[in-house]
Amino acid sequence: MSAQFPVARPRRLRRTPALRRLTAETRLASADLILPMFVKEGITEPQPVASMPGVFQHTRDSLRKAAHEAAEAGVGGIILFGIPAVKDGTGSGADDPDGIVQLALRDLAADLGDAAVVMTDLCLDEYTDHGHCGILTDAGEIDNDATLERYASIAVAQAAAGAAVVGPSGMMDGQVGAIRGALDAAGHPDVAILAYSVKYASAYYGPFRDAAECAPQFGDRSTHQQDPANADESIREVLLDLDEGADMVMVKPAGAYLDIVRRVRDTVDVPVAAYQVSGEYAMIEAAAEKGWIDRERTIMESLVSIRRAGADMVLTYWATEAARMAS
Ligand code: PBG
To answer: Is 95 left (phi over 0), alpha (psi -120 to 50) or beta?
Structure first.
């Protein structure tokens, strides 16, 4: 009896690095990567973020330097988070024309030109003394519609300072429509909106709260961010945001929500971003530091997986380093 040989041998195309490179279905390009950056008012030296090794709260100067390095590595964009020296109930630092993000935006818009897209996170939690993403009622609940007015004003301040794209992340109902209307009325019809449409109430944001100093002083974000148990709701959020004028949509976090990334990608015809958040970063850095996983390989695998799930772009704290490793 003759031996049975398999006709189909998928291993043929895996045999050499050149064959594997030729047949790869997903590629990670430096232009797909967006670097989130923190800039803090009133510091003279960059401050390391303990739970995110390699990430800093920047001074205006160190931000310019790091943004330049990111652009040189080929990243597609930078998204800015500001930490004001003084916080108050309404987050007045957020739309102050001389607030830290507006100052940093002017720096980067001038420095970077068209080398990378300069974007902003648009929220209140970094700016309020209570750490919530909106204005509070006397009863201590977030007032959705009063918050929309603040977001509209922040959007205009960020656009006036040079943001090409604003990223509303507060998960208030109607935020994209309010921002679009305000931008248009203020003469900024060309400023685009990257909507954090799908944003889960996630424990993976833990380290970010150190980086942006925005832990809520009481309560949590589960009255406005989504329940991790839900998927259909994400499609509803995305469709609402597109209806209100979003140019691009985001899913956040990325790694634990790859099914959602895929569903969104298959549903919409606008660019889809996914945010590999602080906890995803911290877990890999911590395990690598212990010598339990190969740091570079795990980083690149995590990023290519997010692309494979359907994200056109990935926000990641490794953007500069990964851009150097990518094509
Ligand atoms: C809100 C905002 C948060 C993150 C990005 N934008 C915090 C939150 O919603 O609680 C988290 C990002 C991360 O964990 O890396 N301004």
So the answer is: alpha
